[in-house]
Amino acid sequence: MRKCIRCGADMEEDFSFTGGFGNVLRKKGFSMKAVYPKAALCPKCGEVSIYVEGEALEKLTK
Fold first, then answer.
1. How far apart are CA 40 and CA 24, in angstroms?
2. Disulfide: which of 9, 11, 36, 53 matches 44 by Cβ 3.0-4.6 Å?
3. What pLDDT is attached to residue 13?
4. CB-based contacts of 33: which residues, under 8 Å, 6+ apart?
5. Do 2 and 14 form a contact (C-beta atoms < 8 A)?
6. Averaged in consecutive runs of 10 residues, what is the pLDDT profile of the chain (62 residues)?
7. Residue 55 phi/psi, 5° resolution?
8. What is the pLDDT of residue 22?
9. What are phi and psi of 33, to 5 degrees?
10. What is residue 29's predicted lDDT score, i.e. its pLDDT?
11. 51 is in which domain, residue-wise?
12. From the DSSP assignment, how many helices (H) and strands (E) are in the chain?
């Protein structure tokens, strides 16, 4: 469970982006890696946190 960095409340997770926003790209040598980040929303103050997790995170960090 993510905690809001502004107010400390539990955030709602697993939101996604639409409209072409949000590709995270990493160019390494001649290859390009792309993943789609997720977002978490704080129901108390409205803060939005963007994150990458699981296999997508591993794909970018290798």
1. 16
2. 9
3. 96
4. 25, 26, 27, 59, 60
5. no
6. 96 83 69 81 96 80 76
7. -60, -35
8. 63
9. -115, 135
10. 72
11. 12-61
12. 1, 5
Helix (H, G, I), strand (E, B) or coil at 2: coil
Question: Facing residues of 50 across strands?
Answer: 39
Residue listed under structure tokens 């939101």: 15
Is the torsion defined by CA of 15, 21, 18, 32 positive or negative? Answer: negative
Q: Tokens representing 7? A: 């107010």
Asked, for residue 3, whether it belongs to a domain, the answer is: no
35 in any annotated domain: yes
- Report yes or no on 43 lying in a domain: yes
* Local structure of 50: helix, strand or coil: strand
How much is the pLDDT for 56?
A: 76
Q: Is 39 among the domain residues?
A: yes
* Domains in the chain, number: 1
